[in-house]
Design brief:
globular, binds adenosine-5'-triphosphate
């Protein structure tokens, strides 16, 4: 698939922008702070309903404007779709598909699929476990949009259960039978929603492992082998992807942890406490990998995500935001060679020399709020 048109209204620094796009490579080149990332962030937002660099929607709306609107024309197998998202910070966002309103924006997740790699992705390797859980869960949602619902169900259960545990912990006395009965109910909900998430993550990690190893070996041929290990809060228990069995194991796990949970006032067992361990050779990448190795690992994770989505039947749009300046010449050329065949690749760079020559295509100059095709600048 590819994006054939991007239109912005009050998004980030843009009052308005109209950017026609084609399949193949498009580079956005311009000095720092001119709005290159803002453009690709908008495309990522249409695909995921989130930003890769802001935890909330407020910064996405141009300062002083009440809302932002992002429109993307998407072409998939010669069929066109128009996605429109109205971003209303603090209120519900609204979405339209082919000019018809949809009841909930999440119903159009999956119409556009992107894989975005940006400097922030270094935190996939160096950051907290939450970053890696989010990577897995976002990929699950990109592959099967119904996971947006599974994730929000789990979050809701967790929030309610934590509220109950917190208030029980605050009372400092043994909780009465009513509290314990309510907790039993939340345990069941946690096991049900958690087992679905856990089973999907385990399956996903198995799918990712060979792809990450292959991408990493290609990017960094002189480094150790990259591997992934899913570490569950259930400890050393053998885990399969059988949901019913996982639900039983989660129920057993929370039963065992109940005393501690009541003391600490927080849920200690479940997929929200799991970790995706990244390994390089015999060592964990976090805390051991060099800066360059960490970059290559983060890239390998994104490239593996791209391959997995592609294997589902369609190339996602590949976005490389400010990536090449960080890589040495060898890694640059290898990465460029790996991504060049994708249906659409969008690249941002501060100077034209940062776009590898293997990635020839259209170029836009981005400066002072203007996005101008290069041929117009020359002419
Ligand atoms: N909500 C907003 N309202 C107005 N301006 C904004 C908003 N959010 C960001 N900006 C402005 O957008 C600019 C940053 O744009 P962007 O991150 O796209 O730059 P860039 O061209 O990718 O730069 P770099 O090469 O440094 O990565 C900054 O000048 C910032 O002040």
């Amino acid at each position: 698939m590819h994006v054939a048109h991007l239109s912005l209204q009050d998004f980030r620094s843009y009052a308005t922008a109209e950017v026609p796009l084609d399949a193949g490579v498009t580079s956005f080149v311009g000095p720092n702070g001119q709005g290159k990332t803002n453009l690709v962030e908008a495309i990522g937002y249409v695909a995921t309903h989130g930003s890769h660099r802001a935890a909330t929607d407020a910064p996405l709306v141009r300062q002083g404007a009440p809302r932002a609107i992002v429109r993307a024309g998407v072409v998939r197998d010669d069929r066109k779709a128009l996605i429109e998202l109205e971003i209303n910070p603090g209120k519900a966002n609204r979405a339209r598909l082919n000019r018809s309103p949809v009841p909930r924006p999440r119903e159009i997740l999956g119409v556009l699929r992107t894989v975005l790699f940006a400097p922030e992705d270094l935190s996939l390797v160096k950051g907290d476990p939450g970053e890696r859980r989010r990577f897995l869960d976002e990929l699950l949602t990109a592959r099967a949009p119904r996971f947006a619902g599974v994730r929000s169900d789990y979050e809701r259960v967790l929030k309610q259960r934590n509220a109950l545990l917190k208030s029980a912990a605050a009372h400092r006395r043994s909780p009465g039978p009513e509290v314990l009965a309510t907790l039993d109910v939340w345990d069941t909900h946690l096991a049900r929603a958690g087992s679905e998430l856990l089973a999907a993550r385990l399956e996903l990690v198995e799918g990712l492992r060979p792809l990450v190893a292959a991408s990493y070996a290609e990017l960094a041929p002189h480094s150790g082998a990259a591997d992934l290990l899913y570490k569950s809060s259930l400890g050393a228990a053998e885990l399969s992807t059988d949901r019913a069995r996982l639900a039983e194991q989660l129920l057993g796990g929370v039963a065992e942890a109940r005393k501690q949970e009541l003391e600490r006032g927080v849920s200690l067992v479940g997929p929200h406490r799991d970790e995706l361990v990244l390994r390089l050779g015999d060592l964990p990448a976090r805390g051991y990998a060099s800066h360059g190795e960490s970059w290559s690992f983060a890239l390998a994770l994104r490239l593996a995500a791209f391959e997995l989505l592609r294997a589902d039947g369609d190339d996602p749009v590949l976005i490389l935001d400010d990536v090449f300046a960080e890589l040495d010449a060898g890694r640059r050329a290898r990465l460029a060679g790996m991504v060049a065949p994708a249906e659409q690749v969008l690249v941002t760079a501060a100077v034209p020399e940062d776009v590898p020559k293997e990635l020839t295509g259209a170029t836009y100059a981005v400066s002072g709020g203007q996005v101008v095709p290069e041929r117009d600048m020359l002419g």
